[in-house]
Write a structure and sequence with these properties.
alpha/beta; Ald_DH/histidinol_DH; Aldehyde Dehydrogenase, Chain A, domain 1; 2 domains
Amino acid sequence: MTLTERINACIHLGKFLSQFVESPPLRKEDVLLNDMFFDGMLHQIKLAEEHNGWFTNENIRFALKNWSEALKNNHLKEWLLPYSFDTIEPKTVAIVMAGNIPLVGFHDFLSVLMSGHKVLVKQSSKDKHLLPYLAKYLEYVAPGFKGYITFTEDQLSGFDAVIATGSDNTARYFEYYFKTKPHIIRKNRNSVAVLSGKESEVQLSALGEDIFRYYGLGCRNVSKLYVPEDYNFDAFFNAIYPWHTLVNKQKYANNYDYNKAVYLMSEFDFLDNGFFMLKEDTGYSSPIASCFYERYSSKNELLQRLKQDQKLIQCVVSKGLIETEIAFGKSQQPQLWHYADNINTLDFLLNI
């Protein structure tokens, strides 16, 4: 397959996904192979919801919307055309996927296929319904993909390179097990937001999206706030109040109750608004239904801290702080050229 053929197949996939971003889904007449795949996709979404209580219909639709936008002609070409894949000798790239949010491993999957390699996927048991179905759609739209996509639940074998994502503990296992192969090993990362105290209500409200989308389970979710020494959290709490309905979700409520009990029994000082807690802490990985915060006294001191801890931070949400910052409300809407851990996946795939 040529790069243009691969891009066109992804454009069709994006159009297919665009039907499932609203509730109820909106069936479109101009989508390729819709009679064959539309009802089946509805079933896969239902299975994903039933299998993983964190994968609500709203969050699945949010993920599908982001991918339907990303898989447009202009975005795909902006991402891929700077590269030359003409001399690629197809190799098999294994991907060990996480399962914290819906389709979290799709970017790696897409990168391998677009570069002309074969992909061997080992999914998380938490997210095993959506991707195989989308892969089948791609194979029907572009039969050249057949033989290039394999899913396995067995021990990985017969691969030439690997991209693996997991916790810090599993990353140590990955680094040992895959040490003889070209690899990208991703560990725990969290995202932070830097507030100046001058944010508008609109910006603080948007920050709620960065914190609460996917219940805060993604590495791009803000789990730590940096605030000025004299910062007052009243405006912040008022702006995020529309998310209070999360406490009606059983899994979120259980975590809120449990973590609040831990804080109380440990006699920690924390701020609480009835569905969300703020705790002053130097760490980055806050429990569900809570966020850590830390006060800073100078911008230079803060920039030094962020640079020092850059291997722990996925992205920084702020305005006017650093060149690579993410706008408020956009942390869960990365572009195709925004790579996890700032490791360019296409560069890696071109050099295996």
